[in-house]
Amino acid sequence: MKKELLAPAGDIEAGYAALYYGADAVYLGLKHFSARSTAANFTEEELNDFTGFAHSKNKKVYVALNTVIQESELPQLLASLDICSRCHIDAIIIQDIGVARIIRKKYPNIEMHASTQMAVHNKEGALALKNMGFSRVVLARELSLSEIKDIASIPELEIEIFIHGALCYSYSGLCLFSSLEYGHSANRGKCLYPCRSEFDGEDSKKHYFSMKDLALKGDILNIPAISFKIEGRKKNALYVAAVTDYYRRILDGKGCDRNREENIKQIFSRPWSKFYFHGKDKTVIEPDFIGHRGLPIGKIEQISKGRIILHIKHDISRHDGIQIDVPGQEKPFGFSLHNLLVNGRNVFEAKTDEKVVILLPPHAPMLQKGLTVYLASSSHVKGDYDYKKPKSGAFLQKQLIQVHVSIEKDKITASSEKQKVEIKSAFIPAINIQQAQETIYKVFSKTGGTKFELENLTIDNPEELFVPISLLNTLRRDLYAKITPEIHTTSIPVIDEPYRFTKSGWIIRTDRVECLSQINIHQVDEIIILLSPDFQIARLKDFPKNKIRFALPAVERCPIRYTNIIHKLLDGGYKKWEIGNWWGLSILPKTGIDISFDYTIYTLNTQAIQEAKEHNISRITLSVEDCLENMQIIAAKSPLPIVMPIFQDVPLFTSSVCLRRHSCQSCSREEKWFSFYHKGNQYSALSKDCQTMLFNQKSLCYAAEAPKVSSAFYRVDFVYKDYLPEAAAAIWNKVHSFEDIEEKIKGNLLSHGGF
Question: Rounded to whole angstroms, how far apart are CA atoms 270 and 290?
Answer without folding.
Answer: 8
